[in-house]
Specification:
The chain is mostly beta strands. The protein has a single domain, classed as YVTN repeat-like/Quinoprotein amine dehydrogenase (Methylamine Dehydrogenase, Chain H). The chain is built from one helix and 30 strands. A hairpin with a 5-residue loop joins strand 21 and strand 22.
């Protein structure tokens, strides 16, 4: 007969394993959201199996998206096509359905979008504004003019104090202070090169990188002074760039580079190009997996999202997501009830 101590130990081990198994089963898995702007859908992708689990209808011309803090919803900016869009689609990720569509009224051409403190900030190109959408209350609760034209992409500093928009029509970046009242003195205009579009801030918040459509250069902005400290050329016309989670590399989309588009990997410390990858089919949106080992990028005309292995610096997989993939968003794995 086993001793009471052995029985107790076995029971404790079994209980621990059962609890771990239950937690693992209860965890909500990660998801990659891909916006297919030509067919007006959001594809929900399992980033492990690389399978498309569902395609959910959105408004016309979905371009960019942000996932809610609890991971249950994704908010999609419906940019429109020939007719300017003016709505946000709020989609239940696991339910694979649009739960509501928020009418933005006069806030036309919503585009760049990011979650901060449980609310969604987005640009409205044609009204030269940035607005904030309260998901829980289903309303716009903050609005700020940028004073610049065609504010396209948007990024928020890691400390949440500054919001930056790349303004294609004004050749500048608007830096908007978020931890104060929405008044004109809360905005700084940073002059950069022609037609800035790609934009991201380093994980440590020290640098803002801005890529230009007109000449393929990247301007590096010192966020402490909001001045351009250097500029260097990497391609032909840049429309997206993204820092790796560790801040050591930046992945850049250049739809006009090479013979038919390129993905360019840049070393942050040296500003040197470490890899160019030809990507026929117009590379656009970029999204890193949280561990930084993979970067996903969309190829608009090829109707695919590619998987870039950041160690091999090579494309290792491809996902057929729908017609016209563009913006990408990531849903982290979260525990049920969080």
């Amino acid at each position: 007969m086993p001793s009471n101590r052995l029985v107790t130990t076995r029971h404790m081990l079994f209980t621990t394993l059962l609890c771990c198994a239950t937690f693992a089963h209860a965890a909500t898995p990660a998801r990659l959201i891909v916006l297919n702007k030509n067919e007006a859908t959001a594809a929900i992708v399992d980033p492990v199996s690389l399978k498309v689990l569902a395609r959910v209808p959105t408004g016309e011309g979905p371009h960019e998206a942000a996932v809610s803090a609890n991971g249950k919803l994704v908010v999609v900016a419906n940019y429109g096509a020939q007719t300017p869009g003016n709505s946000l689609s709020i989609i239940d990720i696991d339910g694979a359905r649009e739960v509501r569509r928020h009418d933005l009224g006069a806030l036309t051409r919503p585009h760049g979008i990011q979650l901060h403190n449980g609310k969604v900030y987005f640009t409205s190109e044609l009204t030269r504004t940035v607005a904030r959408y309260d998901i829980a209350a289903d309303k716009i609760d903050w609005l700020m003019g940028t004073g610049s034209s065609l504010g396209h992409m948007l990024v928020i500093s890691p400390d949440g104090k500054w919001l930056y928009t790349s303004n294609i029509g004004s050749d500048n970046v608007s830096a908007i202070r978020l931890d104060g009242p929405p008044i004109p003195s809360a905005i700084k205009q940073i002059a950069v090169n022609g037609r800035p579009e790609a934009i991201d801030v380093s994980p440590d918040g020290a640098e803002l990188w801005v890529g230009h459509i007109s000449d393929g250069t990247i301007a590096v902005v010192d966020t402490a002074t909001h001045t351009v400290k250097e500029s260097f050329k990497v391609g032909v016309g840049l429309n997206r760039l993204k820092f790796s989670p560790d801040g050591k590399r930046v992945v850049v989309s250049d739809p006009r580079g090479g013979e038919s588009g390129e993905i360019i990997v840049v070393d942050v410390a040296t500003r040197k190009i470490v890899q160019r990858i030809g990507t026929p089919g117009v590379p656009l949106g970029i999204q890193f997996a949280p561990d930084g080992k993979r970067a996903f990028f969309s190829r608009n005309q090829a109707k695919r999202v590619e998987v870039l292995d950041m160690e091999k610096l090579a494309i290792t997989a491809s996902i057929e997501t729908g017609d016209g993939p563009d913006g990408l968003a990531w849903r982290h794995a979260v525990a049920d009830g969080k």
